[in-house]
Amino acid sequence: MVGSLGLTPESLKASGRSSENVSLLILQGKIKRDPEGYETELQLIYKQFLTSVDLFKQQGALSFSSVVGIGSDPSVAKELGDRAMFLAHVTPFYPKQLAAFPAQLTDLLRTSCLAMPSGLRNHVAQALILLMNRKSLVIEDLLALFLDIQTLGDKNLRTLAFSHIVQTIRKMSATDPKHKSLQKIVISMLELEDEAKAKRALATLCALHKKKIWLGDRNERVAIAICEACFHTSPRIMISALRFLLDYENIDDDDDSDAESDDDEETKKISQVVINRQAVYKANNKGTSSSKKKKQAKLQRAVKSIKRKQRSSSENTTSAFSPLNHLNDAQKFAEKLFSRLQTIKGTGERAETRLMMIKVIARTIGLHKLHLLSFYSFLQNYAMPHVKDITQILAAAVQSCHDGVPSNAVEPLFKQIVNQFVHDRSRPEAIAVGLNVVREMCLRIHDLMTEELLQDLALYKKSHEKAISAAARSLIALFREINPSLLVKKDRGRPGATVVKPKQYGEANVFSNVPNVELLQESDHESGSDDDQDDDGDTELLSGDDVEQELIPEDCGSEDEAEEDDSDIDTSIGGDEDEEMNDSDGAETDSENEEMESEDDDGDASDSSGEDSGNEEKAKGTKRKIVDFDANLLSADTSLRALKRFAEAKNEKPSFDESDGILSNEDFRKIKELQAKKEAKIALARKGFKVPDSDQLSKKRVDPAKLEAHIRHKLTKEQRLELVKAGREDRGKYQARAAIKQKKTGGSSNKQKEHRKNMPLAAIRSKAGKSKRTKKMKNSLSGSQFRGRKAWK
Q1: Helices 351-368 and 235-247 meet at what angle, rounded to 10?
Q2: Which residues, including other chains, have CB under 8 Å from residue 345's CB and lie 6 or more apart?
Q3: CA distance 481 to 240
Q4: Whole-structure pTM over 0.85, yes or no?
Q5: What range(s) does the SDA1 C-terminal domain occupy (predicted)?
Q6: Closest CA to 186 of 167, 208, 163, 155
Q7: Residue 204: which residues within 8 A CB-CB, separation 6 or more?
Q8: How many angstroms separate the Cα of 373 from the Cα of each of 167, 378, 386?
Q9: What gap in Å lies between CA 509 and CA 82, rounded to an integer?
Q10: Cα(533)–Cα(538) distance, rounded to whole angstroms?
């Protein structure tokens, strides 16, 4: 190109346009403004770049390669890096002239990365990233190269290449077909035996999975590859994969005290939406101060439990994104990992590694409800109080229990935990942990507990240690819900409570319809009855049939027909309405009904017991009896209008029974709100706790810290000193009084000045007289007292 224009480097140098006399940054700006005018300079710099590459390769062949790079001629590396960055900036303006430049730069980094100095490697990598951002290169060409250069030991280069890979894939569309090809490259590198390359590939997969980029059913091969990394030949890769799988489970559960840290507005909002208004009114305005405090505490507990349930149902926890959820064959994975655990037991592997493998196996068993019966007998070797990290092992044992495991397979482990931890000669901490583990295992497998053992463990509720008594009481509260017949009579709770039938092995609740759809059906019936209420909501409007029956004389129709009409309308329109009325309104109506029934009973005392229902219907009729005929007509008119509006609303919006059974998003939202209200009522009425579902237990992680609840561990000397210093923060440094007086600046105090003042004459005389009287009294008393004989007389 230069020769065709008649320009040579010598002629350019003679004209003063040589690239040596012009800065590359200045020339770069001029090329961007006028690409065609500086094509000759571009060709010259491109030739200089190729020459620098050849010279660098020759120097690299003559010297040793290292991480630091060659140091024979640093000017060659500097010129090469500068020209590479310059050409990367101007490549979009000369696509034909620099078509081969991206491939040449890629080959240079691939073949000579070990011989390059650290600065030159960073410059070439930045030039490749710039070319990729300018669409001159694609990520498929550089992904494997960037994974390779991360193994060189250059920290800056590793950070640069890793962040670029993650950010580039993050900017891609979720439906981009390139994801599959990129995943194939990274997974193939993970399967290599080279530890350094496999480690960088695993780090890339974990980062993209944790950032929710390669996540979900579309990218399940990534989750499977991470799980399969637990069987890598390199122990470091295996430990990294196990640690990543466990990091998803190390999210703390919501504490009971989290509601206190929330905003007051949120608490008020939830209480207004979910909690009954009458319960809030009673807690703040009715009763004594002590009863108000109890009601308010009960309301706060209900609000906290409702908030926890709403948060767990609405928000997806990080454990839901764990790669263990996407295993195609979870049983094979657990068995393979368990066999590896058994093989490395006697090879001198670290105890931390074995513990991580135990936790991953237990989490897989509980999450997918697998059957690995030999795992429970394996845990018996560790179920002893003196074993290191015993609470984490016991938490793994609890996590591996579910309702699909037969009780006879877990019973040996269960009995060993009871025998090793819960006895009179054991430490209080061990007894508390043992009782908590027993409770959690019985919560998942009900058949483990026997009547004799439960009554023996229930006696620990009288212990003076708070941790032991609390654990025993929680065990009693659990069996009040699942099988109260195993408890003694005084521990079963209220005698009027419903008897719970214990669940048999393999028994499951199968839904034949949409869960909680009956709440929607009840709300449809209640919405119709709302139109028949007064503005105050305390009295019901009379239906049209009722008023017509009252207007018709008794001779024209039978009372039985009228009573049937009344009962039909009451049950169809206002039947469900009475269930949601406030307690105070219900009490008023009940008292009125009792008064009316008592009047009828006085008048008709001779009636038989078979006519009680008829008397009640008559009592209702006398209650609705109207004397004024005009008022009767007005009420009939209004009730007929209400029935018309009700019929029109029913025709416009058919109920769930009349529809085809397909629910909309609005119906599901309404079901969720009704379920929240129902749970609020249950939370206000319940004392104790609700037994969670087996699916909820399998998804929830067992926290080892909760097995040690209420246990006070002995503090070390450093921790005690920290507490002492924390209590002295507001206190100043100790100084003696004398030292404070010596450091005092200024004049004398008022007290010192009082000592130096001349006393008035009257004060001097009174002081002298007082001293005389004191001396005289002392002398008079000394003569009458016997002081003993002196030794020298």
Answers
A1: 50
A2: 354
A3: 42
A4: no
A5: 746-791
A6: 208
A7: 147, 162, 165, 166, 186
A8: 45, 9, 25
A9: 71
A10: 8
